[in-house]
Write a structure and sequence with these properties.
two-stranded antiparallel sheet, mainly alpha, 427 residues, Growth Hormone, Chain: A, 2 strands, 16 helices, disordered C terminus
Length: 427
């Protein structure tokens, strides 16, 4: 089997991968349908309202992150995922019924978005940490890359199909499809062989949450990664707002063209995920170079004069963004102790996704006050500042230092005052 797809030779992961592909496709359809419902059917292109919905979906990721991480480390991850996926299916079904009956209002969308965010807060760290129980450590990077490929293959298919369905049968039936897509993950979890999983030691004791925070507090390498993904997630990756505003207010397009933008972006995202799956180990220099590429590509998208050029710029935007995320994810997972992985991944996801409650309303306000183009431009500026600051910090820090030696590849050395650490080849 090709090295790119090596993890698919493992039965449990293969089942989980294809179940996730179907579910992720439905999720992207649901996101497009929800955004269209808010932006066009319930408001008159109100970017602030769309920003609030997005913020409510991600706010619980911040507030519940320590608790969610402790749950992921203390309970069987397979069971936790069954509960969270069922909860997401129920909230999606309620929104679909309200939309089909014509009873849906904006406040109901707000409430359901918050509930979905609560289930997502528990689902994300558990799902991230569960990958390490399905595959051996030497295939973890490959499995994370393939997971990103699954997510972005769905992103390639989902938005385009959603746009067509909204135009043909309406928003409500598109939400119905999303509801049934959760059955794919539930079925995959049921079909897995428990004896073939590699459960991590369960966290115990009342100090689990504090231990997770303390663990990251003494890891400057993890802190650096989390700061970078925070800036990218908060200011640069509000695509469900930015592409909606650009499509409708700048270029005057409808649901089909709006959905198509997500699929076009996914061409770059899927390519990046597959390349990440081929890498034997994640490296810090790849992370920084991809962030710099994101700055250039998003600046190009923000200034694109036509819908076609804007769509084309989204390909490198997706390529760079999805080079950053699997690289950062794998670097974090490979560098933490197994019994701490759930709590650390919860904090990682909180930092990445949790910036959205801050960024989404701000981006919506910027769209209303400064125009849709600045909703993308502000992400380019903020990410550029973060890359420069991170590079200067690495060069000057006593804790994190990239050293270049003749005839050797650069590597990141982590220095701690309380213990001796062997240099890790991740730069």
């Amino acid at each position: 089997m090709s090295p790119t797809f090596a993890s698919l030779s493992i039965r449990n992961y293969r089942i989980y991968f294809f179940g996730g592909l179907l579910s992720n496709t439905g999720t992207w359809m649901g996101r497009v349908a929800q955004d269209w419902l808010v932006l066009v059917e319930l408001t008159n292109h109100d970017a602030t309202a769309l920003g609030i919905v997005t913020a409510l979906q991600f706010l619980p990721v911040v507030l519940l992150a320590p608790i969610a991480g402790a749950l992921a480390d203390r309970f069987k991850k397979r069971r936790v995922l069954a509960v969270t996926q069922s909860g997401l299916a129920v909230t999606s079904a309620i929104l679909a019924v309200l939309t089909l009956t014509g009873a849906v209002t904006l406040w109901q969308v707000y409430v359901l978005a918050l509930l979905q965010g609560m289930f997502t807060a528990a689902d994300n760290p558990t799902r991230q940490a569960f990958v390490s129980e399905m595959v051996p450590p030497e295939r973890l990077g490959n499995a994370v890359g393939l997971g990103s490929a699954s997510f972005n293959a769905a992103r390639l298919i989902g938005p385009g199909v959603a746009g067509l369905l909204i135009a043909m049968v309406g928003t409500g039936w598109t939400l119905v499809v999303n509801t049934f897509s959760f059955v794919a993950v539930l079925g995959a979890l049921w079909l897995m062989q428990g004896s073939e999983l590699r459960p991590a030691p369960r966290g115990k004791g009342k100090g689990g949450i504090r231990e997770g925070l303390a663990y990251v507090k003494h890891r400057p390498d993890l802190q650096l990664i989390m700061v970078l993904v925070f800036v990218l997630g908060t200011f640069g990756m509000n695509f469900q707002i930015t592409t909606a505003l650009m499509a409708t207010t700048v270029f005057g397009k409808g649901a089909t063209e709006f959905g198509l933008l997500g699929s076009i972006m996914a061409i770059g995202s899927l390519s990046a995920a597959l390349m990440s799956a081929r890498r034997s180990e994640p490296r810090l220099r790849v992370l920084l170079m991809a962030l710099a590429g994101f700055v250039v590509a998003s600046a190009g998208a923000a200034t694109a004069p036509t819908y076609t050029l804007f769509a084309l710029w989204l390909i490198p935007v997706g390529l760079m963004a999805l080079t950053v995320l699997p690289t950062a994810n794998t670097m974090v997972q490979l560098s933490v102790a197994p019994h701490m992985r759930g709590r650390v991944m919860a904090l990682y996801m909180a930092v990445f996704m949790g910036g959205t409650p801050i960024g989404a309303p701000l981006i919506g306000w910027i769209g209303d006050e400064w125009g849709a183009r600045w909703t993308i431009g502000i992400g380019s500026v903020a990410t550029g500042i973060a890359v420069v600051a991170a590079t200067m910090y690495i060069m000057r820090s006593d804790d994190l230092r990239i050293r270049y030696r003749f005839h050797e590849r650069p590597h990141l050395q982590v220095r701690r005052n309380d213990e001796s650490v062997t240099p890790e080849r991740v730069a």
